[in-house]
Amino acid sequence: QVQLVESGGGLVQPGGSLRLSCAASGTSGTIFRRYVMGWYRQAPGKQREFVAQITSGGSTGYADSLKGRFTISRDNAKNTVSLQMNSLKPEDTAIYYCNAVYATSYWGQGTQVTVSS
What we know:
- The chain is mostly beta strands and 117 residues long.
- 3% of the residues lie in helices and 53% in strands.
- It is built from one helix and eleven strands; from the N terminus they run βββαββββββββ.
- It has one helix at residues 29-32, and strands at 3-7, 10-12, 18-25, 36-42, 49-54, 60-62, 70-75, 80-85, 94-102, 104-107, 111-115.
- Strands 2, 4, 5, 6, 9, 10 and 11 form a seven-stranded mixed β-sheet that branches. The chain has a four-stranded antiparallel β-sheet with strand order 1-3-8-7, with no helix packed on it.
- A hairpin with a 4-residue loop joins strand 7 and strand 8 (80-85).
- It is globular, with a radius of gyration of 14 Å.
- The N and C termini lie far apart (40 Å).
């Protein structure tokens, strides 16, 4: 059973940056590197939506509206995945969830990101 714990959320002003991290436990590094890791977000009153993903080979994909502002990366030695978010906008306010997929999908509990002046 894989456990995912997100961190790094908080309150930031428009135009600011945040870096989210997701730590995976309950799996070895050999297995972790096989996971497709992703970030999703859910704003109040809206459905959860895809943000970004990174494959075992390091290929990345992003929601079209976020390209150029968000960057996903992974550190297989530390069993972590990160999301660097720049030029944040109020509409980026949401709970951000980490996701891991390798035959089974796992979710973290989420971390709140609030973009407001």
